[in-house]
Amino acid sequence: MTFIPAALGLYTVLNIITFFLFWWDKRAAKQGDRRIRERTLLLFALMGGSLGAVTAQHMLRHKTRKQPFRGLLFAIIALHIAAAVVWALFAGTV
Q: In b/e form, how buried is each residue of 42-61, taking b as 16+ CB within 10 angstroms?
């Protein structure tokens, strides 16, 4: 089955890119440069980079108190967990 390794590879790349985007935005905030839109950060989290987003948020201490960003990121993570549970429950039945 080649789907699983490809999906894991894509997942890893998306999370690395998302972490990098958070790092870039944090750097831009410190230097007063042009920032990355919150919509873009959330979109990458939604596409599969939520682990990278949360990791960056905690490691870099970036966007940890900003609402509604924090709530939206939490909702994305909840959606990903729910999707993973549904997939785990029904993957073998199809």
A: bebbbebbbbbbbebbeeee
Cβ–Cβ < 8 Å for 84, 53 = no
**Cα separation of 15 and 24, whole Å?**
14
Q: What is the pLDDT of residue 1?
A: 56
The dihedral over CA atoms of 56, 35, 12, 42, expressed in degrees to the nearest 10, equals 90
**Proportion of the chain above pLDDT 90, given as a percent:** 77
Residue 50 near residue 73 (C-beta atoms within 8 A): yes
Residue 75: partners with Cβ closer than 8 Å, 6 or more residues away:
none
Q: How far is CA 30 from CA 26, 33, 62, in A?
A: 6, 8, 11
Phi, psi of 88 (to 5 degrees): -65, -35
